[in-house]
Specification:
Largest sheet: 8 strands, antiparallel
Distance between the termini: 102 Å
Radius of gyration: 56 Å
CATH architecture of the largest domain: Beta Barrel
Helix content: 40-55%
Mean pLDDT: 77
Number of strands: 10
Shape: rod-shaped
Structural class: alpha+beta
C-alpha cells in the first residue's frame, strides 16, 4: 500500500469535504528574553505548543451551495468538534479562525474551503489544593504548640507543688529565726551567765531562766572570767544570733520568690 492508501476521507462535525493541501504546526512554546547589553538572548521553554492544523479543501457538485450552508452551520457551532484529518486521523479540535469559503465564477460547482484548527483538550480550571510544604509546616507548628502547652501545664503543676514546699520551708525558717532571736534576747541570759562565776552574787544568782544559753555557759566561762567579760560575750552572742537570723530569713524569702 502506498501513502495515499492510508489517507482518510476528511470531515468536520460529520460534514464531509475534500482536501487539497494540509499544514501542521508543532514544537515548543518559547519565550525569548533579550536583555540590554547582552548579545545572546535567553530562550525560556514554556512547554509544548498547541498543535495546529491548516487545511485547504473544497466542496463540489450541483448542490455545492447546499453543502456550503451545511458546512457553515457546522463551523458556527460552539465548543469543540471532531475533525477527521486525512493523515492524522480523528482529532478533537477548535476552529480558531473563520471558515473562508471561496466561490469563483469560473468554477460554478466548486467552493474552496480554508480551515485553521487547533487541538483541544479537557477544560481544567485552577483549583485550590493543599500545598504539601505549607501543610507540613502547619502540622509542625501545631505539634510544637501542643507540646509547649502540655509542658507548661505539667511544669505549672510541679511548680505549684514546689512552691508550696518552699513556702513551708520559708515559714519553718522564719519560726526558727524568731525563736533563736528570742532566746538570744532573753534578759535572764546574762543573769544565768553570771551565776556560773565562782562566788556569791546575791539571791538571784542561782535563778533559772525560762530558756536561753545556760546550757552552753560552762564552755565559755572560767575561774578568771569577770562579770564585764560575761556581759561582753553575751552581747556579742546576741548580735551574732540576730545577724544570722536576719540572713537566714533573707535567704528563705529569696527561695519563696
Amino acid at each position: 500500500m502506498g501513502w495515499i492508501d492510508y489517507l482518510q476521507p476528511a470531515s468536520f462535525r460529520g460534514v464531509p469535504f475534500s482536501v487539497l493541501n494540509e499544514t501542521g504546526e508543532f514544537g515548543r512554546r518559547i519565550a525569548l528574553h533579550e536583555y540590554p547589553k547582552r548579545d545572546i538572548p535567553y530562550p525560556e521553554d514554556m512547554g509544548r505548543r498547541s498543535r495546529r492544523f491548516q487545511l485547504q479543501g473544497y466542496l463540489v457538485g450541483d448542490d455545492v451551495l447546499a453543502q456550503r450552508e451545511v458546512m457553515v452551520g457546522a463551523c458556527e457551532q460552539s465548543g469543540d468538534g471532531v475533525l477527521i484529518h486525512p493523515s492524522y486521523g480523528r482529532l478533537t479540535v477548535t476552529l480558531m479562525g473563520p471558515l473562508r469559503a471561496v466561490l469563483k465564477s469560473d468554477r460554478g460547482r466548486y467552493v474552496e474551503l480554508n480551515f485553521d484548527f487547533v487541538e483541544s483538550g479537557q477544560r481544567i480550571f485552577p483549583s485550590a489544593i493543599i500545598a504539601t510544604g505549607d501543610a507540613v509546616s502547619a502540622a509542625a507548628d501545631a505539634a510544637d504548640g501542643a507540646a509547649s502547652t502540655d509542658f507548661a501545664t505539667t511544669a505549672l503543676s510541679s511548680l505549684k507543688q514546689g512552691a508550696s514546699v518552699v513556702q513551708r520551708a520559708v515559714g519553718t525558717v522564719a519560726i526558727w529565726a524568731r525563736q533563736a532571736q528570742q532566746l538570744g534576747n532573753n534578759a535572764t541570759n546574762l543573769s544565768n551567765m553570771v551565776s556560773s562565776l565562782p562566788g556569791n552574787f546575791g539571791r538571784y544568782a542561782g535563778g533559772k531562766s525560762s530558756g536561753g544559753l545556760d546550757g552552753t555557759v560552762q564552755s565559755i566561762t572560767g575561774s578568771t572570767t569577770s562579770i564585764n567579760q560575761l556581759i561582753l560575750q553575751g552581747t556579742q552572742s546576741r548580735t551574732s544570733i540576730s545577724n544570722a537570723s536576719a540572713s537566714l530569713t533573707t535567704i528563705a524569702n529569696g527561695l519563696g520568690l
